[in-house]
């Protein structure tokens, strides 16, 4: 008959495990900062990637063809004037390069390969030049710009991302100029008043689109520089042609354009010394743009060849140095992350391959006709149901057990419930005519204590443990205990399934349970290193549990803790796919976060607790050197770094090749779909739920990453976590009602 044992009334909440509950209040207050820290880490990673992508925007040559917008708004004096355009006193004026004078200019640098070679040639021939630099390149190679300035060369702005400013907003124009100024300040401690627009040439190419930009920059104090003579070195016509095309006609002076970046510039390097020697032989002198302006003003005298430079001070200097540091971090981090991505990718693909191979082998081994664990186990077993405020679910749980095809005794341990759980359980048992039910009440002490109480009161040598929100298939208990026919088996993991799978969140968890948990368990079973027996459905030899000290309160994952303890004691732990139970998964993102946070943190605690198994001998050492590394790699390290795949996918789509990145992402998704479909086939599940998998990869998986990162931060900072009761609805009914 059904009996009831009462100890003392509950306190209305679960007590945290020993050593953790003492800091429960403090821990609760610390969770939000840790979540914020996890988000900040992900944001920092994303920011580094975006910065690197922004800096690596492709810089091409000046071969862009203008669309012929017309120049009706541009004064003729400007169109017919010299290559140097300034706005002194608000009046647009141009300056030409004096005869027999070359203002040698270089665009698109600095480049780590070609710019140093150019500087070496200029130093050899004692020739100054003006370099119009791209801000993103300056921030990546600040040392080259510093050498450039120290050598006596002049620098000007060529925008930050080599964008055509004619079609940009005023805000974008300002941003391009300011960012380049900051890069120069950080690299060489200077700012500049010189500017050359990308895709510009001679002044007669100024049109109605670009003229307002030059006017605006003139008002801001910039001098815009064009060319008289273009070497067209980007066409790679050969060194002789480059020298020929860069030579002014007759004895005219000229602003001459070369490129030290923006493409392969070996012909420029070959042509430059020949050009300098030729022009010097013809009696030409070389100067900078500032040298031209000063000569025009003073008509002789000493020239300050770097007059356009201004010393960077104050906020500009410090912000510039901060930019250089940030870029240096990005330059180091992105290659490191790329290596990490390769490692993670190999690990993920390796895991998929291992799961498929071993899962197939496991299925064939356990489902062949002659497979047997030994003589059929028919003796009665004890089913322990720990319950805390399970009024919505406990009746359905007992109804499912009433249909059991295996003889059982049921021990419901009411862990200080305040919602009448014990009364509902007693009434349900009475209505169902179940005489094999005992309801034990205890003061609220937590799930491990409730399970230990049930184990002590169990009448049989095999105990089945389940959650108070779970329902069993009629043959679940019978299937679950059959492996105990093998005397080496000490514990058995059942097949837990999501019952409330009709919501989006439920469907996502259903996919995860079938694909992740159950494929993993097949793999771990064959490798003899099963890390966790699910709390929803698991069975143990009673004596083995007692010898291990019972369900431990040292961690938040008592199921993982006891499973590892069984391995270390020399018992074999197996997976029984045919023992099915239906559990109610969290119905909201908040509850899901709480559950998975506790699971992942508890797993880390259990692994740390049993870390000595790494050096043990025998079965304990086997788990330590096989099971523990697999759990760490596949359940902690790989998932923590798995967001790299998504970050790099987004990075590649934005900055490299959208089509290729998308195809790569779809290929990975396809592999996951194949694994999931195979898992669904093994479990005889409906494939229609796999339609939710692409959305799961975009949303649900990201949340699981953050949960794990949150758990890692908690572990690393020595945080503590209290037990959390999930809200139940009771929507998971008897097994026949689950579709």
What is the strand tally?
Answer: 21
CATH superfamily of the largest domain: Spore Coat Polysaccharide Biosynthesis Protein SpsA, Chain A
Helix content: 40-55%
Tally of structural domains: 2
| Helix-strand category | alpha/beta
Tell me the CATH topology of the largest domain: Spore Coat Polysaccharide Biosynthesis Protein SpsA, Chain A
Largest sheet: 9 strands, mixed
Please give the oligomerization state of what you see.
single chain
> What is the spatial order of strands in the main beta sheet?
1-16-15-14-17-20-19-21-18
Going by CATH, the architecture of the largest domain would be: Alpha-Beta Complex
Q: Which outline best applies?
A: elongated
Regarding CATH, which class of the largest domain?
A: Alpha Beta
Provide the gyration radius in Å. 37 Å
What's the pLDDT, averaged over the residues?
85
Uncertain segments of ≥5 residues (pLDDT<50)?
1-30, 58-65
β-strand amount: 5-15%
Number of helices: 23
State the distance separating the first and last CA atoms.
34 Å
């Amino acid at each position: 008959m059904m009996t009831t044992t009462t100890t003392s009334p509950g306190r209305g909440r679960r007590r945290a495990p020993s050593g953790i509950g003492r800091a429960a209040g403090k821990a609760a207050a610390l969770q939000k900062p840790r979540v914020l820290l996890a988000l900040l880490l992900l944001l920092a990673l994303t920011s580094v990637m975006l910065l690197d992508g922004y800096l690596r925007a492709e810089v091409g040559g000046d071969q862009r063809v203008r669309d012929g917008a017309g120049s009706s708004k541009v004064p003729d004096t400007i169109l017919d004037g010299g290559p140097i355009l300034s706005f002194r006193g608000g009046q647009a004026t141009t300056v030409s390069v004096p005869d027999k004078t070359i203002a040698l200019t270089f665009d698109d640098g600095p480049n780590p390969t070609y710019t140093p070679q150019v500087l070496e040639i200029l130093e050899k021939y004692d020739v100054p030049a003006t370099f119009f630099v791209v801000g993103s390149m300056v921030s990546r190679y600040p040392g080259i710009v510093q050498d450039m300035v120290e050598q006596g060369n002049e620098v000007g702005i060529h925008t930050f991302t080599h964008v055509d400013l004619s079609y940009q907003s005023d805000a974008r124009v300002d941003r391009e100029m300011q960012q380049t100024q900051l890069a120069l300040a950080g690299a060489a401690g200077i700012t500049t008043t010189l500017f050359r627009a990308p895709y510009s040439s001679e002044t007669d190419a100024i049109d109605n689109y670009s003229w307002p930009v030059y006017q605006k920059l003139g008002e801001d104090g910039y001098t815009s520089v064009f060319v008289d003579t273009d070497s067209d070195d980007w066409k790679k016509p050969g060194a002789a042609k480059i020298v020929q095309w860069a030579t002014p006609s007759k004895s005219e002076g000229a602003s001459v354009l070369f490129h030290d970046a923006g493409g392969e510039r070996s012909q420029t390097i070959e042509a430059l010394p020949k050009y300098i020697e030729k022009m010097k032989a013809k009696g030409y002198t070389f100067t900078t743009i500032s040298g031209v302006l000063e000569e025009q003003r003073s008509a002789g005298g000493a020239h300050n060849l770097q007059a356009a430079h201004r010393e960077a001070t104050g906020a500009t200097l410090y912000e510039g140095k901060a930019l250089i540091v940030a870029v240096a971090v990005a330059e180091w981090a992105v290659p490191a992350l790329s290596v990490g991505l390769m490692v993670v990718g190999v690990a993920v693909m390796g895991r998929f391959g291992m799961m498929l191979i071993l899962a197939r082998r496991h299925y064939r081994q356990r489902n062949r006709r002659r497979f047997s664990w030994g003589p059929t186990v028919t003796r009665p077993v004890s089913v322990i149901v720990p319950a805390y405020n399970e009024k919505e679910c406990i009746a359905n749980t007992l109804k499912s057990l009433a249909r059991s095809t295996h003889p059982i005794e049921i021990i419901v341990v009411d862990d200080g419930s305040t919602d009448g759980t014990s009364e509902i359980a007693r009434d349900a048992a009475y209505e169902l005519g179940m005489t094999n039910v005992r309801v034990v009440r205890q003061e609220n002490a937590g799930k491990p204590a409730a399970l230990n109480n049930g184990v002590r009161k169990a009448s049989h040598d095999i105990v089945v443990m389940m959650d108070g929100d779970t329902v069993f298939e009629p043959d679940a208990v019978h299937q679950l205990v059959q492996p105990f026919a093998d005397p080496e088996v000490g514990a058995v993991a059942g097949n837990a399934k999501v019952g409330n799978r009709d919501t989006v969140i439920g469907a996502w968890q259903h996919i995860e349970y079938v694909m992740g948990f159950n494929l993993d368990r097949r793999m771990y079973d064959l490798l003899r290193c099963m890390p966790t027996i699910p709390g929803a459905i698991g069975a143990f030899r009673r004596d083995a549990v007692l010898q291990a000290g019972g369900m431990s309160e040292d961690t938040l994952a008592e199921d993982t803790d006891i499973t590892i303890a069984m391995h270390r004691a020399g018992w074999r732990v197996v997976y029984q796919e045919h023992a099915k139970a239906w559990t109610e998964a969290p119905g909201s993102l908040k509850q899901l976060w709480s559950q998975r946070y506790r699971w992942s943190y508890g797993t880390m605690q259990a692994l740390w607790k049993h870390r000595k198994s790494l050096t043990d001998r025998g079965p304990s050492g086997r788990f330590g050197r096989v099971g523990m590394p697999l759990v760490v790699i596949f359940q902690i390290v790989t998932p923590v770094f798995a967001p790299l795949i998504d970050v790099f996918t987004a990075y590649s789509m934005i900055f490299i090749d959208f089509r290729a990145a998308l195809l790569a992402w779809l290929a990975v998704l396809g592999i996951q779909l194949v694994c999931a479909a195979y898992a669904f086939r093994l479990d005889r599940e409906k494939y229609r739920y796999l339609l939710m998998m692409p959305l799961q990869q975009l949303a649900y998986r990201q949340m699981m990453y953050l949960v794990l990162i949150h758990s890692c931060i908690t572990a690393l900072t020595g945080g503590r976590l209290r037990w959390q009761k999930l809200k139940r609805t009771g929507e998971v009914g008897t097994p026949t009602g689950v579709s």
